[in-house]
Automatic annotation (TrEMBL):
The keyword Hydrolase does not apply. This is SPOR domain-containing protein. The keyword Lipid metabolism does not apply. Residues 1-23 form the signal peptide. Residues 59-121 form the SPOR domain. It comes from the Bacteria. Gene3D superfamilies: Sporulation related repeat. Keywords: Signal.
Length: 144
């Protein structure tokens, strides 16, 4: 019985490895594609290069230190408040054990940072401080 089962299994496995050899024209495959696809791919590659290159530009500037706390919920609440009242500022939240720190803005000039500091002090009465930092530069800032 075992020998019969082994024989059947062997024969079935040999048939699964075999292939039907059908004669084709010349073995070549012809692909028909729209030439505009190449243009789209090239254009997207250019856009990706420009946006990623510009996103990597950094320089010296100022940010506003809004909060430094042990409470994650308090830090997230402050970040939400910045998003709500100052959508033009980009908040940066990170954990530097044991504190959660929230900074906001990318200011090239200290005077611009001071103007936002006064506005933010009304929402954060514990104080907002201006700090030197490496900031993300906008395309306009790079050309100046």
């Amino acid at each position: 019985m075992k020998q019969m089962l082994l024989l059947i299994t062997t024969l079935l496995s040999l048939t699964t490895f075999s292939q039907n050899m059908v004669a084709s024209d010349s073995g070549n495959v012809t692909v028909h594609k729209d030439a505009r696809l190449d243009l789209l791919v090239t254009k997207q590659a250019e856009i990706n290069e420009v946006t990623s290159r510009d996103a990597r530009k950094t320089g010296k500037g100022f940010r506003l230190m809004i909060i430094s706390t042990n409470s994650r919920d308090e830090a997230i609440s402050a970040k939400t408040k910045v998003y709500t009242h100052f959508p033009e500022l980009k908040p940066y939240l990170w954990h530097q054990s044991p504190y959660y720190k929230l900074k906001a803005g990318n200011f090239k000039d200290r005077k611009e940072a001071e103007a936002y500091q006064k506005k933010l002090n009304t929402y954060f009465p514990k104080g907002v401080f201006i700090m030197n930092d490496i900031i993300e530069l906008k395309i306009d800032d790079i050309r100046d």
